[in-house]
Amino acid sequence: MPDGLPTEIDLTRPSAARVYDYFLGGAHNFEIDRQLAEQIASMTPNLAATMRSGREFLRRAVRVLLEAGIDQFLDIGSGIPTVGNVHEVAQGVNPKARVVYVDIDPVAVAHSRELLAGNELTGVIHADLREPEKILAETRQLGLIDFSRPVGILLAGVVHFIPDGDRPEEILASLRAAAAPGSFLVVSHSTFEDQPQEMLDAQRLSARTATEITLRSRAQVTGFFGDWTVLEPGVVHMPLWRPDSPSDVDDHPERFGAFGGAARYDQPAG
Ligand SMILES: C[S@@+](CC[C@H](N)C(=O)[O-])C[C@H]1O[C@@H](n2cnc3c(N)ncnc32)[C@H](O)[C@@H]1O
Questions:
Q1: How far apart are CA 236 and CA 234, in angstroms?
Q2: What is the model's pLDDT at position 43?
Q3: 269: CA distance to ligand 1 center in Å?
Q4: pLDDT for residue 1
Q5: Region entry Disordered: which residue ranges (predicted)?
Q6: Would you say the CB of residue 77 lies under 6 angstroms from ligand 1?
Q7: What's the domain count of the chain?
Q8: Is the CB of 52 inside a 6 Å radius of any atom of ligand 1?
Q9: Model pLDDT, residue 270
Q10: What is the pLDDT of residue 41?
């Protein structure tokens, strides 16, 4: 691990961001994270592939938004931005693209700041998705994202960390309300639909990290887009969402255990 880690890091518990980093092939994880990752992997062999599939979905979605002219992104639950992440994809297409990363995990935030030092069109915020107004206020303070213009709001693999009791639909509504017409929202979310027992087992194990996963139905995930226009092909198992090539789609796309979708805020008529 590099120097400069914040002192508030709890090394006695695994961290979701570091377990995820391990599954993606990153180096920003501790023994305690690797132990949990290996245990999860032995019980749920699809999970590492699911996480990679999630990153690939996010990259495809970012490219679709870039093609639609989006040049500023708010990525909440961004994780540790190694292994081909949003600003690399976005700035590879549009060098002026701006990206603000938000994560609850101090390790993810520390690494993000380190990796992004010197990239003036990116910013990093340490915040909880359950406090959307705080995220919006801090994002405005950074001065990178102009909410009077269309923005891409990315919630990849994070809303399932919000239990029903924390009212995720209201959180999503607050974020949508801050966005200008022409904005996009991207969501990927674990589901129990079409899932074998292993997803349910993974959910049980996730209770050991600081944040437990809530699996949701297609209808619930679709509801997170509110009245925005859901893009084709709708809310589908992630590999089915605009694959680069039909051959990229697994015979059983449902085995990755998560839905992906994107929606656009169309100017209300009248
Ligand atoms: C599975 S990773 C997804 C990373 C990235 N978005 C991707 O798709 O590749 C989930 C991330 O969400 C973060 N997270 C979990 N709960 C959160 C919350 N309430 N607010 C902000 N971030 C959260 C975790 O720390 C972790 O980094």
A1: 6
A2: 75
A3: 35
A4: 42
A5: 245-270
A6: yes
A7: 1
A8: no
A9: 62
A10: 83
Shortest-distance atom of ligand 1 to CA 51 = 1
Paired tokens of 238: 């992630």
DSSP-based three-state secondary structure for 44: coil
Distance CA 106, CA 15 (A): 10
Q: Residue 198, SS3? A: helix
Alpha carbon of 76 to ligand 1 centroid (Å): 7
Domain annotation covers residue 244: yes
Could you give the CA distance from residue 268 to residue 115 in angstroms, rounded to a whole number? Answer: 40
Q: Is 160 in the pocket of ligand 1 (CB under 6 A)?
A: no
Nearest CA to ligand 1 atom 13: 77
Structure tokens belonging to residue 65 = 């938004």
- Domain ranges, residue 27: 16-264
Residue 2: predicted pLDDT:
43
Residue 270 lies in a domain: no
Average pLDDT, the chain: 89
158 lines ligand 1 (CB under 6 A): yes
Amino acid 3: pLDDT: 44
Residues of the chain with pLDDT under 50: 1-4
**How does pLDDT run across 143-154, given as a tens digit for each residue?**
999 999 999 999
